[in-house]
Amino acid sequence: MAKKSKKQQPGGTPATVALTAAGVEFTVHSYDHDPSHPSYGEEAAEAMGVSPDRVFKTLVADVDGALTVAVVPVAGQLDLKALAAAVGGKRATMADPTLAERTTGYVRGGISPLGQRKKLPTVLDASASAHSTICVSAGRRGLEVELSPEDLQKLTGAVVAPVGRPA
């Protein structure tokens, strides 16, 4: 069962610290992460009782040699060709996981689009605008933040484009 909290927890993650500093309204959802679950995002949706089309995963890709963040629904997949086009690139591949962790400051399954060690170009899937709020990683496994897609776009400087596709 997910626990909800609107207040900043002491020792929050860089993502929750960034949200608090920006004065953005958000809700923290925490749940007990199961390391044996096959999908971090689907686990989050199930644990929080939220539709998987409202829970977004943060993926790091390499677009023409530059690391780029894609935020797409956990129920779907990232369209690498569409991601490259969204940032004016030619070719995209998934980034090396170790490089993604080192660059963002987060571990796989807990990479947040917010509060990253190095600000990366970000693309938010256009489907996010269909929801008043979406959930993204708060910076560690078992912790999500719920906020408006507009606030996420503003805080990350994200381009909004159709970069997700059904699984």
Structure description:
The chain has helices spanning 14-22, 40-48, 80-86, 97-104, 149-156; strands at residues 3-5, 27-30, 56-63, 66-73, 76-78, 92-94, 122-125, 134-140, 143-147, 159-161, 164-166. The strands form 3 sheets. A 5-stranded mixed beta sheet has the order 6-3-4-7-10. The chain has a 4-stranded antiparallel beta sheet with strand order 1-2-9-8. The chain is built from 5 helices and 11 strands. It is an alpha+beta fold and 167 residues long. Strand 8 and strand 9 (143-147) form a beta hairpin. The radius of gyration is 14 Å and the shape is globular.
Structural class estimated from helices and strands: alpha+beta
Radius of gyration: 14 Å
Q: Number of DSSP helices?
A: 5
Q: How confident overall, as mean pLDDT?
A: 92
Unreliable residue stretches: 1-10
Distance from N terminus to C terminus (CA atoms, Å) equals 26 Å
Overall 3D shape: globular
Return the string of H and E elements. Answer: EHEHEEEHEHEEEHEE
